[in-house]
């Protein structure tokens, strides 16, 4: 919670003018109340050649916990909202940015009656932030500050010197130097970019303060080459703010019980929830292939097993021949998002009656899934540990027994064609495996044999002569005539 | 029907649908009030009022009856006798009620109040709300009633009581009769004997092995025959003679099988096909006397299709019975009990394909049945089929209840060639059939032996479902999850948030004198299931390949690769073998509660993102901040207070870093990995959760001693008497010394492991006392500052304690169910409950 701002000068333009520009006397130590604790301003050095102002925020842990208080019984704070062991008292986080704007509000606006000329002029400035949380590391720090006219020295801080194998922490020691910026500009850069770099999940500012942050970007943000990133990190932070207030915290607690990070468990919904805005062509091709297969089989009552955020359901809804569409997912969060994006609550009754979203699990048999024309397992099997696959196989092919089953899964051979994918890596962090074409066919053939289905295969996406298509699709058809009739 | 001077006595079955039939004003409501509980009676007038605010609004009749039928249905489904108070003079209205009774398999009983028109009219006239009821309505009612009278039995009422005249109706009394199948008051012990099919030699030898002498058991046990006494075998008359004499002497119970049912029909002169061995029985019975045949006919006629025994814990019938039919009385129930459920298909041998009802069975009562020959009797979802094909050359099997032991004798020879080969019809278990979602989904209440019903809320079950489905290991290898543990009551000792004195005091208050203090290993909780070899794992847990499992407190595999897991299991297995525990505990597998170290092995992600991160940030910021403050101070700025505070903060942060570093060290493969077992939870056939901790630790010490690999770590311990101040002081010193050296702390446990308070409630199985330095990791680097401590002392422990006890009860339950060999879903239900409760909101620092 500490940074220093230094100004170099000489007898003609003494560095101690910094005191006028910041509206804080260099001979005094002053304290200010902010919503997160007490901010102190003092000057470790102040002469004509060099003047340094230090801002130190003493956070009030009680205030942090109070703001994070959750649903725990007896007024106890809840796991997700209050982190007792956190870096807020030490790191130059978004809270420090809020303190900066409180303490130096006039300076940020460039107001200085005593030295109006110097306030409007570029100055030889040096800013030092010893512990700057920087998601994206030193490289991003440079990408954010250098285009604004700063000379950047960003040095990563190791996590623990006793355990060098743990590597670097997310903090950098940052030194900024420039002679082309005004003090007001410098302060506004910090005010906006500290929280952007911090990108904390636990960010307890209210939505209107976020808007204030955006206003501070006026004049320099629009031309910034990383404008998109800066803006989107704001948006995602606002989103996570609402998410914390709204979403169930049960998974957070289970992660905590297991000494795991929340992200290790609550990861059924990908980070980039704006996927619909930039649809990857492969996902579109996959949905087209699935819908075509369902149409060809004359299916009208369809299960989307592992429906995720409901993209396929949205596609199926467009065709009235699908009279009953049941989306099943084990993630309550995914179902919530699916329901929102399908706008189920605002859909007409007749339309809405075609769709049903329900939590279910393919690790268990489920009577509710019996008697459907078709089931789709699109990009699902690879999210299960291999030893758990027989359970899914029985639940779908042995127990639910729809007439048609469509399974899609990545073709691992194709991965060499993804330029961005390092060799030997899977496409998604939660993929427990990815199959080659032969492996998929072997599995599908065995499943079909065991459960009396026939299976055929189709490529999805460009069928590379060497490595095959990016996605492979298996179409299972039940063999038993009697069961087909019964279904 | 009994007549006494005091009036008619009307027997009414305890579970039935009683339909009062009578004109308006005939006194039905008064009759119902007098003879039944108010909640047993549903009146159509009341339902009219419910839907229309007017009990006499005839326009609301249709809706009122919908409500009436709905309520009656709910009551009957729940097994509660229901009395319908409506005129029910029309056949059509009675028909719907009979359908309702059939739907819920209860007896429909009619009680008719045949009261003269004048009486009805006079009564109505006395009621303000009915005073203007036209006389013709009553006349019509009585006309319809008279027309109905002789048809009531044909309509389907199984008992019809007609009370003629106001006086008879006034003086009648109702007595409640038990159902024939309700023998819940009999507690046995029982020996339930499978399908005999005329194999009298095998029967005699089995009775001998069970300890019966001339059909009587010296210890007063009762034999229960599941039916199919006759047909196919060599001596059906001999079997009948033995069974009938035992039943008549009160030494045995018998339910009918489809074979004697058919033979009984033959004896009554019905036309039946002489197939499936009936011809043999008929021929053998030719040699018997007419008198014997008459006795047999009477005996078969009196058989009740199924029995509910032993307080409802045991149901015996011939062909198996779903829970909803237990204790019910209808033709459908009888036919189910006799023939079982079929899918309607026939197999390649032309025999009907049986519906695998036992797979769906979720009832609390054990169902013991026969009918379908299987090679071995084995439990499936709390059901067991005892037909082991004696007549086909298999064996004759009996089940001892409540011991649940199987006793069998082999067949002397193949007496009859089977149409199809014997095969096990019970799927599941071995072939990886998953559990059913209905076992775990939604709001649930899990019954436990030690804490009654433990409720699981829907949102917690939903979270557990996600984690269980996406991350947990195979449920067959996951028979237990450890409960959370409450910390000691908050200490007022200066500088301490937790201190052992309160823990000792709490146990003393709970009436627990002898406790053990066990060193807390700061690692990660790990449950280990280790089997003697892969074959043992297959045999007991039905998995192919792994020899056990090593999982976290949410059921996730500890290591991503199976190889590392197997390596650890192998080392542990060697120690178990060398310590001689397999034979000593008479088991092929052990389930252990352990701590796996170092903490950094599993918590690496958390360390990086949280603990070490805090250390890194503080180490980066303080040197510069302190130097700046010192420089400002030397320039004369008034920063002394701030500088002092920042220096303290820097020290606290350094202490924090030192605290977490103690639980981190570098490992290479398994080098540096330690496993500290602190409880053996279960072995084959027994839960060891109640084994006193000194005995536990003695067993575990031997494991550590015999571990040549350096994997296993000892748990240090100290025994304390909570009533002895010196002993308590020694316990405190022990803790101070251990935590002073950087130890995490200790857990205080009742020496007996499982302990109850004088009022019978469970005592906490352990109370943790965490060290002062260790708690920095939990409450933050600066928690020891006086203002922070005084704020933190206001913590609330009750919910955590309650949660710990509920999870403990579920954990114990899982172990008991595992020990009893209960089906997987029953064990999983309790395990799933623990995981669900772990997602309840509670202060995570406790």
Automatic annotation (TrEMBL), chain A:
Any single GO BP term: regulatory ncRNA-mediated gene silencing
CDD domains cross-referenced by the UniProt entry: AdoMet_MTases
Record's protein name: Small RNA 2'-O-methyltransferase
Needed co-factor(s): Mg(2+)
Family: Belongs to the methyltransferase superfamily. HEN1 family.
Hen1 N-terminal domain ranges (all copies): 1-249
Keywords: Magnesium, Metal-binding, Methyltransferase, RNA-binding, RNA-mediated gene silencing, S-adenosyl-L-methionine, Transferase
InterPro entries: 3'-RNA_MeTfrase_Hen1_bac, Hen1, Hen1_N, Hen1_N_sf, Methyltransf_12, SAM-dependent_MTases_sf
Gene Ontology terms, MF aspect: metal ion binding; RNA binding; small RNA 2'-O-methyltransferase activity
Protein EC: 2.1.1.386
Source species: Streptomyces malaysiense
Pfam families from the UniProt entry: Hen1_L, Methyltransf_12
Catalytic reaction(s) noted: small RNA 3'-end nucleotide + S-adenosyl-L-methionine = small RNA 3'-end 2'-O-methylnucleotide + S-adenosyl-L-homocysteine + H(+)
Methyltransferase type domain segment(s): 303-393
Class in the EC hierarchy, top level: transferase
Automatic annotation (TrEMBL), chain B:
InterPro entries given in the database record: Calcineurin-like_PHP, Metallo-depent_PP-like, MPP_PrpE-like, P-loop_NTPase, PNKP_bac, PNKP_ligase_dom
Coiled-coil residue windows: none
A Pfam family per the record: AAA_33
Organism: Streptomyces malaysiense
Protein's UniProt name: Polynucleotide kinase-phosphatase
Keywords assigned: Kinase, Transferase
Domain of life: Bacteria
Molecular-function GO term, any one: kinase activity
Organism lineage string: Bacteria, Bacillati, Actinomycetota, Actinomycetes, Kitasatosporales
Calcineurin-like phosphoesterase domain sequence ranges: 189-375
Domain Polynucleotide kinase-phosphatase ligase intervals: 463-841
């Amino acid at each position: 919670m500490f940074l220093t701002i230094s100004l170099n000068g000489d007898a003609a333009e003494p560095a101690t003018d910094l005191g006028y520009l910041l509206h804080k006397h260099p001979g005094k130590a002053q304290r200010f109340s902010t919503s997160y604790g007490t901010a102190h301003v003092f000057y470790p050095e102040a002469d004509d050649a060099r003047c340094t102002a230090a801002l130190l925020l003493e956070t009030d842990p009680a205030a942090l916990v109070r703001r994070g208080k959750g649903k725990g019984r007896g007024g106890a704070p809840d796991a997700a909202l209050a982190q007792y062991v956190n870096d807020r008292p030490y790191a130059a986080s978004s809270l420090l940015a809020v303190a900066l704007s409180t303490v130096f509000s006039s300076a940020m606006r460039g107001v200085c009656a005593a030295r109006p000329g110097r306030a409007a002029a570029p100055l030889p400035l040096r800013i030092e932030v010893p512990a700057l949380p920087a998601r994206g590391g030193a490289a991003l720090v440079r990408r954010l500050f250098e285009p604004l006219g700063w000379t950047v020295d960003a040095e990563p801080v190791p996590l623990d010197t006793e355990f060098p194998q743990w590597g670097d922490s997310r903090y950098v020691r940052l030194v900024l130097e420039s002679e082309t910026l005004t003090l007001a500009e410098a302060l506004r850069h910090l005010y906006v970019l500290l929280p952007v770099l911090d990108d904390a999940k636990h960010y307890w500012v209210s939505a209107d303060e976020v808007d204030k942050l955006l206003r501070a970007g006026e004049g320099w943000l629009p031309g910034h080459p990383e404008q998109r990133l800066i803006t989107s990190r704001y948006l995602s932070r606002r989103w996570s703010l609402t998410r914390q207030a709204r979403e169930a915290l049960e998974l957070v607690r289970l992660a905590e019980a297991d000494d795991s990070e929340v992200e290790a468990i609550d990861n059924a919904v990908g980070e980039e929830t704006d996927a619909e805005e930039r649809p990857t062509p492969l996902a579109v091709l996959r949905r087209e292939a699935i819908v075509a297969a369902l149409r060809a089989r004359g299916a009208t009552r369809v299960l989307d097993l592992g429906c995720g955020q409901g993209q396929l359901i949205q596609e199926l809804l467009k065709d009235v021949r699908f009279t009953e569409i049941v989306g099943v997912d084990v993630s309550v969060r995914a179902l919530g998002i699916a329901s929102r994006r399908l706008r189920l609550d605002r859909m007409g009754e007749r339309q809405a009656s075609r769709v049903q979203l329900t939590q279910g699990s393919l690790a268990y048999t489920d009577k509710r899934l019996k008697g459907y024309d078709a089931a789709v397992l699109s990009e699902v099997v690879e999210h299960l540990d291999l030893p758990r696959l027989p359970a899914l196989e029985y639940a779908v092919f042995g127990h639910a027994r729809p007439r048609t089953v469509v399974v899609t899964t990545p073709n691992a051979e194709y991965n060499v064609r993804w330029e961005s994918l390092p060799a030997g890596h899977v496409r998604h962090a939660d993929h427990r495996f990815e199959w080659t074409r032969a492996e998929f066919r072997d599995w599908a053939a065995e499943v079909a044999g065991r459960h009396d289905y026939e299976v055929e295969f189709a490529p999805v996406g460009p069928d590379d002569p060497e490595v095959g298509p990016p996605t492979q699709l298996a179409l299972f058809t039940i063999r038993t005539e009697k069961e087909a009739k019964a279904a | 029907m009994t007549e006494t001077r005091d009036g008619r006595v009307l027997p009414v079955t305890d579970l039935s649908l009683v339909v009062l039939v009578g004109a308006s004003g005939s006194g039905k409501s008064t009759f119902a009030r007098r003879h039944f509980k108010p909640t047993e009676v549903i009146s159509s007038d009341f339902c009219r009022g419910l839907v229309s605010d007017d009990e006499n609004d005839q326009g609301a009749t249709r809706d009122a009856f919908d409500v009436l039928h709905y309520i009656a249905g709910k009551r009957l489904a729940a097994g509660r006798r229901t009395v319908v108070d409506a005129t029910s003079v029309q056949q059509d209205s009675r028909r719907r009620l009979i359908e309702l009774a059939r739907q819920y398999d209860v007896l429909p009983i009619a009680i008719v109040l045949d009261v003269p028109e004048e009486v009805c009219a006079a009564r109505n006239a006395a009621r303000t709300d009915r005073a203007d009821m036209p006389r013709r309505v009553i006349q019509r009612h009585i006309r319809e009633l008279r027309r109905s009278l002789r048809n009531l039995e044909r309509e389907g009422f199984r008992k019809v009581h007609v009370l003629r005249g106001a006086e008879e109706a006034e003086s009648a009394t109702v007595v409640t009769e038990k159902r024939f199948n309700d023998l819940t008051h009999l507690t046995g012990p029982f020996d339930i004997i499978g399908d005999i099919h005329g194999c009298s030699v095998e029967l005699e030898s089995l009775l001998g092995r069970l300890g019966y002498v001339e059909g009587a058991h010296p210890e007063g046990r009762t034999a229960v025959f599941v039916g199919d006494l006759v047909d196919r075998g060599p001596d059906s008359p001999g079997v009948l003679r033995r069974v009938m004499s035992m039943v008549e002497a009160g030494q045995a119970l018998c339910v009918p099988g489809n074979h004697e049912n058919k033979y009984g029909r033959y004896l009554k002169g019905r036309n039946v096909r002489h197939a499936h061995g009936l011809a043999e029985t008929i021929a053998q019975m030719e040699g018997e006397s007419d008198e014997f045949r008459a006795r047999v006919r009477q005996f078969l006629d009196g058989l009740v299709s199924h029995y509910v025994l032993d307080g409802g814990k045991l149901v015996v019938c011939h062909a198996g019975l779903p829970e909803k039919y237990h204790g019910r009385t209808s033709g459908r129930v009888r036919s189910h009990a006799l023939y079982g459920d079929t899918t309607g298909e026939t197999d390649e041998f032309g025999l009907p394909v049986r519906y695998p009802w036992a797979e769906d069975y979720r009832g609390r009562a054990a169902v013991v049945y026969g009918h379908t020959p299987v090679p071995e009797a084995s439990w499936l979802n709390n059901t067991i089929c005892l037909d082991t094909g004696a007549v086909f050359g298999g064996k004759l099997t009996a089940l001892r209840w409540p011991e649940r032991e199987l006793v069998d004798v082999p067949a002397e020879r193949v007496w009859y060639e089977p149409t199809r080969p014997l095969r096990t019809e019970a799927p599941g278990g071995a072939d990886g059939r998953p559990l059913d979602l209905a076992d775990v989904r939604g709001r649930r209440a899990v019954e436990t032996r030690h804490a009654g019903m433990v409720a699981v809320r829907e949102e917690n079950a939903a979270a557990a479902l996600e984690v269980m489905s996406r991350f947990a290991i195979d449920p067959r290898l996951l028979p237990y999850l450890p409960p959370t543990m409450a910390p000691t009551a908050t200490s007022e000792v200066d500088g301490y948030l937790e201190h052992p004195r309160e823990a000792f005091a709490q146990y003393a208050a709970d009436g627990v004198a002898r406790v053990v203090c066990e060193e807390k290993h700061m690692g990660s909780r790990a449950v280990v299931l280790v089997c003697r070899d892969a074959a043992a794992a297959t045999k007991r847990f039905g998995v192919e390949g792994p020899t056990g499992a090593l999982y976290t407190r949410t059921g996730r595999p500890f290591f991503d690769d199976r190889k590392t897991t197997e390596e650890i299991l192998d080392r542990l297995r060697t120690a178990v073998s060398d310590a001689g525990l397999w034979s000593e505990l008479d088991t092929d597998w052990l389930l252990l509660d352990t701590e796996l170290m170092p903490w950094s092995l599993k918590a690496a992600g958390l360390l990086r993102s949280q603990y070490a991160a805090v250390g890194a940030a503080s180490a980066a910021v303080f040197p510069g901040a302190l130097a700046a403050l010192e420089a400002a101070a030397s320039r004369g700025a008034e920063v002394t207070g701030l500088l002092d505070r920042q220096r303290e903060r820097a020290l606290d942060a350094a202490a924090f870093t030192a605290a977490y570093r103690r639980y981190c060290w570098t490992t290479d493969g398994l080098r540096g990995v330690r496993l500290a077992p602190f409880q053996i939870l279960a072995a084959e056939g027994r839960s060891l959760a109640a084994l006193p901790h000194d005995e536990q630790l003695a067993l575990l010490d031997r494991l550590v001693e015999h571990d040549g690999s350096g994997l296993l770590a000892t748990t240090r311990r100290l025994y304390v008497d909570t009533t002895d101040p010196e002993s308590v002081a020694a316990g405190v010193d022990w803790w101070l010394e251990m935590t002073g050296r950087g130890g995490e702390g200790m857990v205080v446990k009742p020496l007996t492991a499982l302990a109850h308070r004088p009022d019978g409630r469970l005592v906490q199985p352990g109370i943790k006392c965490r060290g002062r330095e260790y708690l920095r990791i939990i409450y933050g680097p600066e928690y020891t500052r006086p203002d922070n401590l005084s704020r933190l002392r206001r913590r609330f422990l009750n919910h955590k304690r309650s949660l710990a006890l509920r999870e403990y009860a579920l954990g114990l339950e899982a172990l008991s169910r595992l020990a009893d060999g209960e089906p997987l879903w029953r064990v999983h239900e309790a395990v799933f409950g623990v995981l669900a409760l772990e997602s309840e909101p509670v202060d995570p620092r406790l």
